[in-house]
Write a structure and sequence with these properties.
This is Putative membrane protein. The chain contains 16 helices and ten strands. The protein is an alpha+beta fold and 447 residues long. Among the domains are: 157 residues, no CATH class; 137 residues.
Length: 447
Amino acid sequence: MKNYIYSIWDSLEKLESKIAFYPSIISLLGLMFAFFMIYLESIGISKYLVENAPILVVNNTETARSLLTTFIGGLISIMVFSFSLVMILLNQASSNFSPRVLPGLISNRRHQIILGIYNATLLYCIFTLVSITPQGDKYQMPGFSVLIGIIFMTLSLGSFIYFIHSISQEIQVNTIMDKIFKKSKSRLERLVENEKHIDTDFEDSSNWKSIMANSTGYMQDVSINALAHIAEQHDLKIEIVPIKGAYILNGIPVLRYKGQPSENKEPDSVEDLEKKLLEAITFSNSELIEDNYILAFKQITEIALKAMSPGINDPGTCINAIDYLTELFAIRMTKKDRSYYFDEDGKPLILIKTVSFDELLYNVMAALRTYAKHDIIVVQKLFIMFEYLLQQQDALRENYKEAIIREIINLKNDAISNHTNEADIKVIKSYIAKLKNLNPSDYSFEA
């Protein structure tokens, strides 16, 4: 039962990132409130207010109809304009920065709430207008409901002004990178905090039973809570074979486990067990930084590469991207290359494979060296990044230091081979000399 609860909870978290989630919820609330006001009008709330507080009631039928009709037409125009701005934002972000940033922009909660306010107000005004019905030679006048509609429309206009301000900020590359950085930093810090700071030897899993993927797609997320519950229930040890975010082909192993189902189970319980284990993995065609911090490195790197393309030629944005990457790498250095889930007794139940620091640094630097090695300003910034990372003595494990030095050598070789100006070469060599002073003599910066 807990396994299904965890799966439902994870599904709700994914649903929250969809652009239509909050607008749908708020629209439903607006519709329910409209019916609630119709009920209050049916028991005479407007009649009571006319007698006791007439200022709170619009008591002219033509005025009420004109106001509500104007509100409905204006709200439709505002919604069309707002959705158009969102589409322009997404198109520009995809063209100028990276298509990978789109899920983060679509899941912007503030924009979703604003669009929901528009739609809720529109539905409220429509049903309030419909509730003005004739009774003999008179009309049933929902005067108080019309006043509420005026308040909702004022709120919608304020939301529209805020939406224009927000969308103008969201389209700026620094804002996009800052949001990516903060989400990734939060995810990384949470992983580091939850990580057991003890050395653990996990068993060799090469002979364990394998569970094959039954679908194709990116491994978006794994419900660790659901896997842990099954592992504790059946006394299993589990290894997650692929790295989160990897593209999974049908029929390749995604999980390995050691152990047998608990006693008093049905004969086909092994198949049931493997089915439950596989249900804990979510496959998707999109990724979120909240689920996979590696995506932030990809997105910021792609923004930097796009900025260095001949069509855009914006080295300033590339330098800003390197600043964000520097801090993210420094945080990543505080995390181990292998992650585990521990039970209450401190025993490792689940081995979670992650991208090693060495591989992550190489992938980022391989792309930056390819497209930015000709720009001496960007090269200097990369050397400054390495200098900062080598100074993080508390997090600088030996294998991390070796990976950094390898990339310094690669950057030096590419930079020198792509610069013929003596002044540029002198700058490169001066940074190499500075970096040598940060390391013991047994490390060489020669290829």
